[in-house]
Amino acid sequence: MSDLLTQAVRGNRRDVFSRYGERPSYGVKERFVRYTLRTFSYFTVFVTLAIVFILVIDASEFFSQASFLEFITGREWLPFGEPKKLGVLPLLTGTVMIAVGSSLVSIPIGLGIAIFLTQYTSRRFQRFMGPVLEVLGGIPTVVYGFFALTTLTPLLKHLFTSIDTFNALSAAIVVGLATLPMVASLSADALQVVPSSIRNAGYALGMSKFHVVTRIMVPAAFSGIVASFLLAFARAVGETMAVSIAAGSTPSMSFDYLKSIQTMTAFIVQISMGDTAAGSIEYYTIYAIGISLFVLTFAFNFAATAIIRRFREVYQ
Prior knowledge:
The protein has 14 helices and two strands.
């Protein structure tokens, strides 16, 4: 029996079954669920590979007509002019500006909300605030864009007289508000997973509540908190409608939040309006920007996974 258990633990199921004459039996329902879930997983992989294939094929058509070196190093983006200037750096600059600016809004506020809800309030108040955060996260981003254009920007004009009607600052703020519920909810979940015995040990040593939260709870839940930060940043990189409405459509490398900018996703929306002739180089810029955004997001997620594994804490 001990030999059987040892082989089973090691994963040698085929050797175990062939030796002892035992085979797993699956009913009709179990086989149906098993094959259905397997089909879903294969379908997900197929869709992902199909998207990558389409991006690569059409992006290669773009790079057959334009210089790849100019694309990744050029500082001007004028695909409709003559001569055409196809440097992606202005769009990349706008994307990074929105992602960084929104993170400066969502990360500190979201983490503060998570700490307040999990460490300083009652469970009744937590049950009340949870749906409120979910409602805030369920608001369509196009609504955030109109809010920035009609309400937030006029308010900012009282503080910054030189601010444009379409500007990066208001877009970054509303994208930060859109990603704030993600940071708050995921950080709160990470803090709640930390065993209460660790917190109580800090109190037993005579630590104040502030020191227990900042020196025990937050470091113990650091991997989950960092995961929420990275997910919020990734969503800000891919945000489309709010940025298209509030930030404008002026590619720029000035890093000036008071001026109009354009992100990668906003340019894709602009081209997708139907005014560009299919098969032209302007049309294929969609796929060039799309695969650039895909590579950027993939690299970011890969780095995020490595960071999370580095700081991950497992409690039993």
